[in-house]
Q: What sequence folds into this?
């Protein structure tokens, strides 16, 4: 079960009405990234990511239309290409699970690599206190 459905079920159990996600109709970003705090939010819910998962998401969000091979991601995120390239696949899978199946964060280009999903809306919050944002996609 993904996080969005789980939250909707919890709201229903608390006596609230089952309603669609406020972000489901394109009413704003699906994900917000706070680089200085190294935190990621889906709606108002903070998503707990490991250091590698966050770094992987940040790398893709910084370059939204660029396709990265596994080796390139190993160099950028892990800092060295000596780790098994399959480790990238494992971290991408975990990132997809944590962010929810309905948020197309990472797109796989078979035989090539990964990129930020074209349908994924990500907002980077440069200074959370000032409310200034930079829209990535």
A:
């Amino acid at each position: 079960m993904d996080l969005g459905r789980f939250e909707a079920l919890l709201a229903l159990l608390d006596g609230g009405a089952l309603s669609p996600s406020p972000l489901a109709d394109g009413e704003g970003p699906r994900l917000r990234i706070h680089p200085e705090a190294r935190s990621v939010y889906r709606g108002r819910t903070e998503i707990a990511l490991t250091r590698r998962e966050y770094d992987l998401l940040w790398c893709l969000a910084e370059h939204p239309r660029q396709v990265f091979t596994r080796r390139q991601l190993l160099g950028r995120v892990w800092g060295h290409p000596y780790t098994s390239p399959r480790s990238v696949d494992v971290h991408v899978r975990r990132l997809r699970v944590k962010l929810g199946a309905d948020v197309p964060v990472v797109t796989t280009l078979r035989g090539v690599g990964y990129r930020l999903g074209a349908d994924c809306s990500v907002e980077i919050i440069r200074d959370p206190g000032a409310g200034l944002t930079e829209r990535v996609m």
About this structure: The beta strands are 31-34, 39-42, 45-47, 106-109, 113-116, 122-127, 132-135. Residues 15-28 have pLDDT under 50 and may be disordered. The longest helix spans residues 86-99.
